[in-house]
Design a protein that fits this description.
By secondary structure, the chain is α/β, with parallel strands linked by helices. Helices cover 23% and strands 21% of the residues. It has 12 helices and 20 strands.
Amino acid sequence: MLVGSVFAQSPQTPKYWVLLKDKAVENYDYRAHLSPQAIKKRALMQIPLEQYSDIPLNETYLKKIAEKGIRTQNTSKWLNAVSAQLTEEQQNWLLQQDFVKELVRISAPSKVLRHTGKVDSGEGKRYATAIEQMEATIMEEAGLSGDGIIVGVIDAGFYGLNKNKNLKHLSKDDKILGSKDFVNPERNDLINEMKTYSDDHGTQVVEHIAGIRNKGPQFGFAVDASFYLARSEKGDTETRAEEDYWISAMEWMDSLGVRIINTSLGYAMGFDDPKQNYSLKDMNGKTAMISKAAQIASEEKGLLLVVSAGNEGNDAKWQIVSAPADAKGVLSVGATGPSGLKAGYSSIGPDFLPYLKPNVACYSLMGTSFSAPIVTGFAACLMQHKPEATGIEIKEIIEKSGNLFPYGNNYLGYGVPKSSVALQLLDGKEAPSKIERKMAVGKDKMIIRVSAKDLKDAVVFHKRKQFFVDKQILTKPSGNKFKIAKPKGVTQSTFVCGEKVVEIIW
C-alpha cells in the first residue's frame, strides 16, 4: 500500500523516473547544499566541492510538471530526475517536452535480504566468528574501532535499537546522529514505533557493525562509529518497494558527511506481477537506477557503499547478485558457511560482467544481510586509520586483503578480508600474496601437502574460467596430503586449507 496523502493516483498507475535534460547552474553555492561535515569530508579526500550532480533540479521544469497535475514523489539531484506515477496521457505529454530526456519505469520490487537460520551466538568467545575470522584482535591492538567515522544504514527499520542490549553504548554515547523515514516522511520515530514485521531488520544490521554483548562476544568492528539511519523499504516483501526512496536516502546521507553506507536491500525478482521483475541481464551495473546512483556515490562522492550480494544462490531461476550489488563501484559482500564453502543461499556473480562480483565474503549463517555489515565495520576501522582515503581506495584495500587475492571467484570474490594485510597496505607497505601457484598443465590430478597447523578439511573451487566457479567441493586429507582431481572443462582450481591457499593451473 502506498503511504501518504500526496499519492492521490491509483496504486495501479505505473511509476517512472522522469530524467531531465539539464540544470540551472547559475548562482549555485555548494555551501547552501552541503553540511559543514560533508564539506570537511570532501576537502579531506580532495574531492571537488562543486559538482554538477549536487546542483538542485531546475525549478522551471518542476513547475511545468506540477502544472500538468503530475505529483512527484521523490527527486534525485544525482540522477537529475523525479519519480512519479504516470497515466498514459501524462507519459505521452512528458515525452513531448524538450526538457525531458527519458522515462524509465521503476519496475522491480525490493526485498529485505533476510535468511532464516540459527544465529551463531559465539558464546564463550571474545569475538563472534566472522570478526575473529577477519583478525579482530589486530584491529583492537591498533586502537581501531571506527571512532570518528560516520556510517549510514539504509534499511527497513530500526525498531528497538535503543533497547538492544548489544547496542546500548550507541545511545549512551549519543552515536545515533539522526534518522529519517523516506517511505513515510511525517514519521519522526524509527526506533520506538513498529510499522511492519521487518522494522527490526536494520537494528540487527547495526548490531553486526557495532554490537557488543555484555560478557559475551563482540559482534562488530566499529563499536565507536556514529550513525545516520534511513528507512527506504516498506518491509512487506509482497509490496513493491521504491528504489527512489533508497536513492534519496543516499543523497541525504552524503550531504551530512557520511563516509560509508551499508544496505541490506536487493532489487531483483518480484513477488506479485512477474512482468515487473528485472531480467538476469539487467544485473549489469548500468540498467537499474539504484545501481547508477550507487556508481555516482562511488565515483564522485568518495562514499563507500557496502551492499549485500543477495540470498538467491539456491534459486535456480536467479542465483546472481541483485542491484545495487551489481554496480562496479560498490563493495558487494557474499557469505561463507562454517566449512569455508560459499553458503548455499549466497548469490553469485554473473559471468557476463567484465568485473568480479561479489567482491569479498565472510562467515554468516543468517544471510548476506549480515555479512555485509560486518565488512562495513571493518571498513570503518580502516577509514579511521586513514581518514583521507576515498571509498574506492578502501574498497581496493579490502579486496587486496582477501585471503584469495588475486585469484578471486564469483562465489566469494577475493575471499575473507584480513586486518593484518589491510593495515599493511594502508600504510603503503607491500603485502605479497601468500598464495602458491602450481602448474599442472596436461595433468589430471595434483597432490598438495599441508602442514600440521593448517591440516583440516579443504575447500576447492574448480573454475571453468579465470573467475567463474564450475563447482565447489569439501575434501578430506589422507595423512597430510590432498589429492585434487581435475574435473572436465576446468582450467583453474583454488585450494584452501586453513591459511594455506594454492592456485592450480591445469
